Amino acid sequence: NFMLTQPHSVSGSPGKTITISCTRSSGSIASNYVQWYQKRPGSAPATVIFEDSQRPSGVPDRFSGSIDDSSNSASLTISGLKTEDEGDYFCQSYDAHTQGLVFGGGTKVTVL
Amino acid sequence: EVQLVESGGGLVQPGGSLRLSCTGSGFTFSDFWMSWVRQVPGKGLEWVANIKKDGSETSYIDSVRGRFTISRDNDKKSLFLHMNNLRAEDTGVYYCARDKWTLFLHCGLDVWGQGTTVTVSS
After folding, report:
1. What percent of chain B has pLDDT over 70?
2. Which residues, 6 or more positions from B89, have their beta carbon under 8 angstroms from its beta carbon?
3. Taking CB atoms and an 8 Å cutoff, what residues of chain B touch A50?
4. How distant is the Cα of A81 from the closest Cα of chain B, in angstroms?
């Protein structure tokens, strides 16, 4: 079993760039894809990044994802920050040992 | 339109039972693994259980194993979560979601329902 650790909160001004990290506690971050979901109050989660770095149709290219073997972590970068980007962001990967999904604790994004 | 719609949430006393349902439309339901994910008030997302396309394999998070049972009826395009011996910490919004796979790699949850609220309280 492994855990995914995210910062509790990240903030930025409109137009700026922020990056959210997601660190895997054990096993390689590259062993299973990482997804990122945006969650707003009262709404279902929505995928903003899948398969480490792919964007679903309709998600603006201001959102980008990557993984880094050296830090065993994934990152979600939001550039050109907009007020509509506020919400909670969760990383997620798959645990092949338990055959279950693992979510990070979530990061609250605030646009100042 | 690809859609998932949950139902069955409500208020139940500790130790009680509840059955959640989720109906899919706009896609071939039997072609996909399915999951239940919950969000406890003020906290994050937590995967609860999943089930293979034909229902032959299931997995659970440790805290619900032995109390919850995930099942499906592909003819009715429906997913279920039978919850027994409910505890206060099971309170939350429960989402059904469609699992996406590429070859043998899991690619996340690509379709979500709107959620159904479960409240466990006396």
Report:
1. 100
2. B40, B63, B120
3. 100, 107-108, 110
4. 23
- Check if the beta carbon of residue A97 is closer than 8 Å to that of residue A1: yes
Which helix (H) or strand (E) element contains residue A22?
strand A18-24
Residue type, A68: D
| Distance from the A60 Cα atom to the nearest Cα atom in chain B, whole angstroms | 17
Task: Decide if A33 and B105 are in contact by the 8 Å CB cutoff.
Answer: yes
B80 within 8 A of B21, measured Cβ to Cβ: yes
Query: Model confidence over B4-54: pLDDT tens digits?
Result: 999 999 999 999 999 999 999 999 999 999 999 999 988 899 999 999 999
Dist CA A63 CA A104 (whole Å): 18
What would the pLDDT profile of B70-116 be if each residue is shown by its tens digit?
999 999 999 999 999 999 999 999 999 999 998 888 999 999 999 99
**Chain B interface disruption, residue of A90, A101, A107, most B CBs within 10 A:** A101
Q: In angstroms, rounded to a whole number, what is the distance separating the alpha carbons of residues A102 and A91?
A: 8
What is the three-class DSSP state of B90? helix
Residue B37 CA to residue B95 CA, distance in Å, equals: 5
Q: Residue B89, SS3?
A: helix
